[in-house]
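Weekly sync notes, structure subgroup
Attendees: PM, AL, DS (notes)

Item 1: joint prediction request from the bench team. They want all four components modeled as one assembly rather than separately. Inputs as received:
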Amino acid sequence: MSEQEKPLFCDCDVIHEDVVNRVREKMYEKEQYIDLAALFKIFADGTRVQLLHALEQGEMCVCDLAVLIGATKSAVSHQLKTLRMSNLVKFRKEAQTVFYSLADSHVEDILNKGFEHIWE
Amino acid sequence: MSEQEKPLFCDCDVIHEDVVNRVREKMYEKEQYIDLAALFKIFADGTRVQLLHALEQGEMCVCDLAVLIGATKSAVSHQLKTLRMSNLVKFRKEAQTVFYSLADSHVEDILNKGFEHIWE
DNA sequence: ATAGTAGTTGAAAGGTTGTTCAACCAATCA
DNA sequence: TGATTGGTTGAACAACCTTTCAACTACTAT
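Output from the run, pasted for the record:
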């Protein structure tokens, strides 16, 4: 099923058909936008961006991170799980301690673009 | 009240005090992370990123956008309000028609960084 | 004037999300 | 072996978010 077959139902008429047709060719599949939104959703929480920014400075264990940002181990662990499942952080185990670090530099890039914007 | 006075209560001990102290100096105020997360929250919805990506191609009115992405005028208008209030889009009125466009190039930058990541 | 259209808005409904709490696992140490 | 510690997990609750629906404004045209 192609993108062209998506339901065009809408409660109004096209006003500028030429513009809409030109733009439609440049658009991606709806799924792409949902995936993109899912990525930004990970960055859409204060605790998580704080964790990511902390991990930019180097690897840290759960307790260190919890003390650093003033949250419980449990809350941090839950958020790290989210970050882990999105492949934004990686980790290594050493005895009972788990050290987390950023998965790749894309993460920093996105954080920095965001900071750039809010600082104008 | 300075950032240093934030409650350090936590349900665990600092394990690597030197690391934590070094990282703490690099951290921003908690409010900065909340603001950053608030920005990413705007990008954290499929409909909104679709609207933003559509507006990268040029200005469009509400009906055009609604038909283009297959949503109701109302849903689009609600999301455009969110984008407007975050200063991510601007608009101009012409008779009863309202034309929306991107507020600045930061928006495209952030979208592109996101696409880069999901496409690896 | 009256009808129709572009757009906005508030409330309601359904879904998602973040933290807390308690229980749990696994590794260390006494 | 038994106690402690670092870390994870599931359930529950509250808060938030997105769409829909219906009502509404404002402009245009007949």
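Discussion: Residues 105-119 of chain B form the longest helix (15 residues).
Action: AL to compare against the crosslinking data before next sync.
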